[in-house]
Amino acid sequence: MEKIAIIGGGNLGSAIARGLVHTKACDPQMIHVTRRRAQLLAPLAGFGVITGSNNLEAVKSAKIVFLAVKPYQMKDLLAEISPAIAGDAVLISLATGIDNKTLLELSGGKNAVFRAMPNTAVAIGQSMTCLASLNATPDQDEKVKALFEQLGTVQFIPEELMAGATVLAACGIAFALRFIRAATQGGIEIGFGSELALKIASQTVKGAAHLLIEGGTHPEAEIDKVTTPRGITISGLNEMEHQGFSSSLIKGLMASYQKIENGSKQQK
To answer: Which EC number(s) are documented for this chain (predicted)?
Structure first.
């Protein structure tokens, strides 16, 4: 068992720690999570995870170091911890908009660096995580991939697609949840109690996803199976499209993507 340090125990950093514990991928005592207000990490400490605010202590002897801080904090953080990072440790950045070349330079150039974009479902081992690496050996690539495979599905992608992965996977989980919320509200309006409406909507979305993941089919192929001539499903779908359903979703994705692109340009 190798020590894992997570610098930045915010929503995503804490979710990764919970996922590692939940899936039994790592002994809780081998995980060290930090943040400035360490008292907010009490729930993780309750699972047996080591918590605190001392970043240097956290990275000491760690073989995997997660950098789960805001992009604007990365330069100062790496200046602080780089001298204490082991030469064979891998650095995994969760920060949006900072490329691996910059991470390698800021960290001193001795370590393998990875950009990872999981989503918050990592807490229950159901994340979609995209990875890109630099200065890593094939064994290190496999090591990081194997770690994230215990937390969901993993895909290595060209680094230039990481901004898109952030929108589609990380922001995307919020977009999917907003659909479930809207479906729940509609269910209440047609007569269901809120808890039952949420249960039905959530399981329906889960089932739809499994049809595609396990069946390897296209969404339209599955839609065709439940749309009949003059039927109720096609009537509902067409009304949604008339109201801009697909268009608004695509525009939302593009708005998030443009936000990332603009932020990257400002950092440069």
So the answer is: 1.5.1.2
Per-residue pLDDT tens for 42-87? Answer: 999 999 999 999 999 999 999 999 999 999 999 999 999 999 999 9
Q: How far is CA 179 from the centre of its chain?
A: 19
Binding-site residues for NADP(+) sit at 7-12, 68-71
Nearest Cα neighbor of 89 from 116, 69, 70, 108 is 108
DSSP strand E in 89-227: where? 90-93, 112-117, 127-134, 152-156
The number of residues in the chain equals: 268
Domains recognised in the chain with CATH numbers: 4-157 (3.40.50.720), 165-267 (1.10.3730.10)
Q: How is 21-73 classified by DSSP, letter by letter?
A: HHTTSS-GGGEEEE-SSGGGGHHHHHTT-EEES-HHHHHTT-SEEEE-S-GGG
Binding region: 7-12, 55, 68-71
Express as a percent the part of the chain with pLDDT over 90.
95
Q: Which residues are annotated as a binding site for NADPH?
A: 55
CB 122 within 8 A of CB 129: yes
Its pTM stands at 0.88
Closest CA to 116 of 75, 73, 169: 169
**Alpha-carbon distance values, 6 to 127, 149, 174, 207 (Å):** 17, 18, 23, 33
